[in-house]
């Protein structure tokens, strides 16, 4: 009976792995086949132009850096539970990304990482993943708000009521967090979360914050270089402010990762149209960012999902 039970479990795990990879590849195929922005007739002349080689190499380097820094981040945080190798961290991050492809706001990523550790550490791994993603949210929120304020003072394209609303929401959120810090839900409270965060060694927090900042810079400059590649000549600071504001707005909306490019692209179309940037450039940059940062890592992650072995 034990043998039959093990065989059933192995079959179910195999079936789930095939379904996950199958869905991931299907979503990618459907999007690539329907996305008119990725027009290779437009891209090939740019790619083959020798004067663009430096920009293209830089974009590819930042694409690699974006995921590699995330892998280093997870290796650093996971050491609280277990020292894992760079290879193990790579496998866990890319597998989790694949699982998160068709779940709201990438929730599947949390479950994906948990599967690689002993069950007794499940809660800790989920908590560490919240910290891993939370630092990126903090940087996105901080720099996105600064970007919005800067655009407001330079171009006055953002209505005063919107700026007031952003500041008001941030202040209200901070006030609520402070007032509700001792309110517990099923034994968990903000005070409890802060106490758990303090249990993690300061050196791990410092490294996580530094790597999160580097990852944010890599992602923002992917956008900057791609817009430069397509001839957008907005001043660097103004372009960076626009991108950080767009990223803040897009990240604030609930979405699926396979639709992320569409949401960011739609918001970018509105903001950049006010700055005089052609809509086709905005659309193609959004599509390329999605392809580089989601499609390629998911294709690699699909291999790791198929190689996954359930912990006994």
Please, could you describe this protein's structure?
- The chain is mostly helical.
- The chain contains twelve helices and no strands.
- The protein has helices at 2-34, 40-48, 53-78, 86-99, 108-114, 122-155, 160-179, 190-199, 202-229, 236-251, 260-274, 279-307.
- α3 crosses α4, α5 (108-114) runs antiparallel to α6 (122-155) and α6 runs antiparallel to α7 (160-179).
- The chain starts with a helix and ends in a 5-residue tail after the last helix.
- The mean pLDDT is 79.
Main attributes?
12 helices; 312 residues; globular; mainly alpha
What topology emerges from the helices and strands here?
Layout: H1 2-34, H2 40-48, H3 53-78, H4 86-99, H5 108-114, H6 122-155, H7 160-179, H8 190-199, H9 202-229, H10 236-251, H11 260-274, H12 279-307
Helix pairs in contact: 1-12, 3-4, 3-6, 3-9, 4-5, 4-12, 5-6, 6-7, 6-9, 6-10, 9-10, 9-12, 10-11, 11-12
Structure, briefly:
With 312 residues, the chain is mainly alpha-helical.
- Beta-strand percent range: under 5%
Assign the structural class, choosing from mainly alpha, mainly beta, alpha/beta, alpha+beta, or little secondary structure: mainly alpha
Number of domains: 1
Main beta sheet strand tally, sense and closure: none
Q: Residue-averaged pLDDT, rounded?
A: 79
Percent helix, as a range, is over 70%
Measured between the Cα atoms of the first and last residue, the distance is: 17 Å
Per DSSP, the total helix count is: 12
- Cα radius of gyration in angstroms: 21 Å
Q: What is the general shape?
A: globular
SSE string, helices as H and strands as E: HHHHHHHHHHHH
How many beta-strand elements? 0
Low-confidence segments: none
């Amino acid at each position: 009976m034990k043998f039959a039970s093990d065989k059933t479990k192995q079959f179910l795990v195999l079936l789930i792995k095939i379904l996950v990879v199958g869905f991931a590849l299907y979503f990618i195929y459907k999007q690539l086949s329907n996305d008119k922005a990725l027009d290779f007739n437009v891209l090939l002349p740019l790619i083959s132009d020798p004067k663009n080689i430096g920009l293209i190499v830089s974009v590819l380097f930042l694409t690699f850096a974006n995921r590699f820094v995330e892998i280093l981040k997870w290796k650093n945080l996971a050491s609280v539970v277990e020292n894992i190798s760079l290879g193990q961290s790579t496998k866990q991050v890319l597998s989790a990304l694949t699982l998160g492809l068709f779940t709201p706001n990438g929730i599947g990523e949390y479950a994906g990482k948990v599967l690689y550790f002993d069950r007794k550490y499940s809660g800790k791994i989920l908590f560490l993943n919240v910290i891993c993603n939370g630092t990126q949210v903090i940087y996105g929120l901080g720099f996105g708000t600064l970007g919005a304020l800067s655009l407001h003072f330079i171009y006055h394209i953002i209505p005063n009521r919107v700026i007031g609303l952003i500041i008001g929401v941030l202040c209200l959120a901070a006030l609520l967090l402070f007032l509700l810090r001792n309110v517990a839900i099923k034994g968990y409270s903000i005070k409890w979360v802060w106490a758990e965060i303090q249990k993690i060694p300061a050196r791990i927090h410092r490294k996580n914050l530094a790597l999160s900042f580097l990852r944010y810079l890599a992602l923002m400059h992917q956008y900057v270089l791609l817009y430069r590649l397509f001839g957008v000549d907005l001043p660097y600071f103004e372009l960076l402010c626009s991108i950080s504001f767009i990223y803040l707005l897009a990240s604030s909306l609930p979405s699926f990762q396979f639709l992320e490019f569409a949401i960011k692209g739609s918001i970018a179309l509105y903001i950049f149209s006010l700055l005089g940037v052609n809509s086709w450039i905005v659309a193609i940059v959004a599509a390329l960012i999605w392809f580089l940062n989601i499609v390629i890592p998911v294709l690699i992650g699909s291999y790791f999902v198929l190689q996954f072995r359930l912990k006994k």
